[in-house]
What we know:
3 domains, alpha+beta
Amino acid sequence: MHRTYCVCSARNLHPIKTEISRRLSTKLGLVRDVDINRLSTNLSTVPWKICASVCLVRLPIIEPEKNELEVAFEKLSRQIEYERSVLSDWEIEKLRQLDLISSIEAGEKSLDDLDFKVAHQDMEDTYDQSLHDFNDKAIETMPNNLDMMNPQRLPEESLVLLTKQKLGNDSLWMLPVETWTPGETLRETAERALDVQGGGANSSASFISNAPSGFYKYKIPKKSRAADSWVGAKLFIYSAFMPRDSMAAAAASFSLDAREGIEYAWVSRQEMRKYVKSKYCNAIQSIML
Length: 289
């Protein structure tokens, strides 16, 4: 019995494998015939503009009022914590002092048995009174919520800084953004965006990290761009926030230079869709604190 061997070179075997793979993939619906030469001629050779922008958030300044469910849950949580906890050294000493004072008032013990100068209960009463006086002085006048340029507006919500910028022939509301230049990192570009577009907000803003938190890209309409201009822009969005100060200190910690002609607004989540497009709004809200 003789066996016949077929010797094929790698050069002859490669076209066979390619043809088998193409037919199998086409039959299974995995690929479709594509004219690569025709497709490559339609690809634009004009590069995209690389930009860095900053989602600068002003965190809530005051705590919003609790609803009925939140109040009931807080009361239940405090009750459970109280029932499962043990007395601290301060509480044990306070109860001992109260028992001693009751014994002295009842005549069971004399004043010579008093072994403390200031009772813990008197100290707690003094602390409560100091807190009450502080809260009375800390009541602040609510700002004008209709003033979109006021960083103190809507103190119970988170606000995002938007600036009005020229995009082709149109003026659009966007996050502070600047074009990346060779030799600098994207983080440095984002900081420069706050210095230029944000009126110097970089000095008081705190960045979350050195890496961007989001990404968004847009194309400039052909009718709004020159033949040799950019196709569009790719935005690497960084997250930053303003320190949580009181409403009185918010204006002092952040201010924009109106002499530069920068048009800006502090907007909430609900107001944002009135200013920016839906996809851009979703990209911003996905990284808001």
